[in-house]
Specification:
The protein has two domains: 3-157, 2-Layer Sandwich (Ribosomal Protein S5, domain 2), CATH 3.30.230; 164-280, 2-Layer Sandwich (Alpha-Beta Plaits), CATH 3.30.70.890. The protein is 33% helix and 27% strand. It contains eleven helices and twelve strands. Helix 1 runs parallel beside helix 2 and helix 8 packs across helix 9 (226-237). The protein is globular. The N and C termini lie close together (5 Å). The mean pLDDT is 96. The structure holds cytidine-5'-monophosphate. The site of cytidine-5'-monophosphate has 11 residues, from strand 2 and helix 5. Cytidine-5'-monophosphate is lined by residues 26-27, 29, 133-135, 150-151, 176-177, 180.
C-alpha cells in the first residue's frame, strides 16, 4: 500500500506590504515570505474512501478542510490517485497568520505528486495550489521568496541567513478577510520597504534583514484586536528590537540573528506566555527532505 509522510512547514512574513485593493476584491501585495521549522506532520495512506483524521479539535474533520480539498483537486486532475486517509498532526496553531492550513494543503499535494509519480514541476504545483488559496504556492517551495499579485506569484529569493524566532499566538484567532476588509491602504503613509529586505538577503546581512521587517496589516489587525498590539509591545519590552505580527495575525514573533539570544529570550518569555514557540529558518536540505515515501506498492 502506498504511503507518504510529509513535514509541512509554517511561514512567517518578514515583510508584508499591501499596495492597493483590486477590482476582484483581493489586495495587491508584495511580501517576503520565509519558511520556519514549526511544522505539522501529514501521513497519507490509501484507503476505502477519502478520510481526515486530526488530533486538533479546532479542525472539523470534513471535506471543507484545505488538506482534503487538495486531495479532491488532485483526484479530479489525476484519476490514478486512490481514495486517501489523511492524518494530520498539528503543531502549527490554527487561524494564526502562519499559513498552517495552506502548508497542510501544499503538503498533501506534494505528497500525492511523489506517491503517484505524477512528475509535476514547481510551476504546475504552484498553479494548482493557487486555485485553493493565495498562500499555498509559497508553501509548495520556499524557503525564502517574494510573493506578489494576491500572494500567489512566487519568485525565489536568496535564502535568508539563519534567524531564530520566538512566536506567541494569542488564544483568539483573526479572520483574514476581515483584516483585509478593514484596511484603508490610501490612509497609510509609511509602507515597509520590500526592496531593502531583498537587498539585505542578497548581501546575506542578517541584521539588515531584521531592521527591514514590517507588516502593513498590523494597522488593521491592531484596530480590530487591540490585544495584538499589547502583545507586540509586551514582547518588545521583554528584550527584543525586532518584533512583528505575522500575516494577518494574530501571532506575533520576536526575531534574532543569534541563537543564544533567542533561547535566552524564549526562557524568559515562557513564564508569561507558556504557549510560546521557538523556531528557526528552514534551509534547502530540510525542504528537499520533507516528503518521504514508505510502505509497499
Ligand atoms: O486567498 P485566500 O483564500 O487565502 O484569501 C482569503 C481572503 O483574504 C480573501 O477572500 C480576501 O478577502 C482576503 N485577501 C485579500 N488580498 C489578498 C489575499 C487575501 O484581500 N492578497
Amino acid at each position: 500500500m502506498k504511503q507518504a509522510k510529509v513535514t509541512a512547514y509554517a511561514k512567517i512574513n518578514l515583510v508584508l506590504d499591501v499596495l492597493r485593493k483590486r477590482e476582484d476584491g483581493y489586495h495587491e501585495v508584495a511580501m517576503v515570505m520565509q519558511a520556519i521549522d514549526l511544522a505539522d506532520t501529514i501521513h497519507l495512506q490509501e484507503a476505502q474512501r477519502n478520510w481526515l483524521h486530526t488530533d486538533n479539535k479546532h479542525i472539523p474533520p470534513n471535506m471543507n478542510n484545505l488538506a482534503m480539498k487538495a486531495v479532491t483537486l488532485m483526484q479530479q486532475h489525476f484519476p490514478q490517485v486512490a481514495p486517501l486517509q489523511v492524518t494530520l498532526q498539528k503543531k502549527i496553531p490554527v487561524a494564526a497568520g502562519l499559513a498552517g492550513g495552506s502548508t497542510d494543503c501544499a503538503g498533501v499535494m506534494l505528497g500525492i505528486n511523489k506517491m503517484y509519480n505524477l512528475g509535476l514541476g514547481q510551476d504546475e504545483l504552484e498553479r494548482l495550489g493557487a486555485e485553493l488559496g493565495s498562500d499555498i504556492p509559497f508553501c509548495m517551495g520556499g524557503p525564502t521568496a517574494l510573493a506578489t499579485g494576491r500572494g500567489e506569484k512566487i519568485e525565489a529569493l536568496p535564502h535568508c541567513p539563519d534567524l531564530f524566532f520566538v512566536l506567541v499566538k494569542p488564544s483568539f484567532g483573526v479572520s483574514t478577510p476581515k483584516v483585509y476588509g478593514n484596511l484603508r491602504v490610501a490612509e497609510i503613509k509609511e509602507h515597509p520597504d520590500v526592496n531593502r529586505c531583498i537587498h539585505a538577503l542578497k548581501a546575506q546581512n542578517a541584521e539588515q534583514v531584521l531592521t527591514s521587517m514590517g507588516n502593513l496589516l498590523e494597522h488593521s489587525t491592531f484596530e480590530l484586536q487591540p490585544d495584538v498590539k499589547k502583545l507586540k509591545d509586551s514582547m518588545a519590552a521583554a528584550g527584543c528590537n525586532h518584533v512583528l505580527m505575522s500575516g494577518s495575525g494574530p501571532t506575533v514573533f520576536a526575531a534574532f540573528a543569534e541563537e543564544a539570544q533567542a533561547q535566552q529570550y524564549y526562557q524568559k518569555i515562557r513564564n508569561e506566555y507558556p504557549g510560546a514557540m521557538f523556531a528557526r529558518t528552514v534551509n534547502q536540505k530540510m525542504l528537499e527532505e520533507r516528503v518521504a515515501l514508505y510502505g509497499t506498492d
